[in-house]
Amino acid sequence: MNNDSQVGRLKRRQLWWKKHGKRNDDPTLKKNNKKPAEAENSVKNKSPKRFILFIGNLDFSTTKEDILKHFAKCGNNLQVRLLTKKDGRPRGCAFIETFSFPDYQKMLRYHHTILNDRKINVEVTAGGGGNSETRKSKIKLENDKVREKLRKAQREVGQNADTKE
Q1: Alpha helices for 48-132 (secondary structure H)
Q2: Could you give the CA distance from residue 73 to residue 123 in angstroms, rounded to a whole number?
């Protein structure tokens, strides 16, 4: 196909869509017949297939096996990626991945626990790399949400302990 026939074909397609474009009132074009609020809730309830956390402040001698052993109570199907420098030396951080949201929540509770005599940081990732302001703000927002949930849970545990006495 040469360029002239492609251009003509595109113009014909644009004209057809202007004339016969999708209409919102056609029920056959709607993917689901849910009300907007129900559709919005169904999207919110869907979760990603994998959950990744960042682990920082690791001792350089820490191995994948050490990390898996530390997080053993958080599930069986965990994957660990230790970050290394170009020359192969460890960077002192890793990513841990799970496919279960409850396991993900359990792992977040390991923030500031001790692994190989070091207080580790377990934090939510924002995907990708780099130091853009939007990425930093996204990470900060997610971490703040998690910390607030943990504080709330700790207050509830404290209140429950007070009522038992």
Answers
A1: 64-70, 101-108
A2: 18
**Cα–Cα distance measured from residue 76 to residue 101, given in angstroms and rounded to the nearest whole number:** 13
Average pLDDT over residues 138-150: 84
Residue 124, token pair as written in the block: 């939510």
Whether 95 contacts 55, CB under 8 Å: yes
Q: What are 67-114's pLDDT values in tens digits?
A: 999 999 998 889 999 999 999 999 999 999 999 889 988 999 999 999
Q: Is the dihedral of CA 86, 92, 96, 101 positive or negative?
A: negative
**Which H or E run contains 118?**
strand 118-119
Residue 112's region, left for phi above 0, alpha for psi from -120 to 50, else beta, is left
- What's the pLDDT score for residue 91? 94
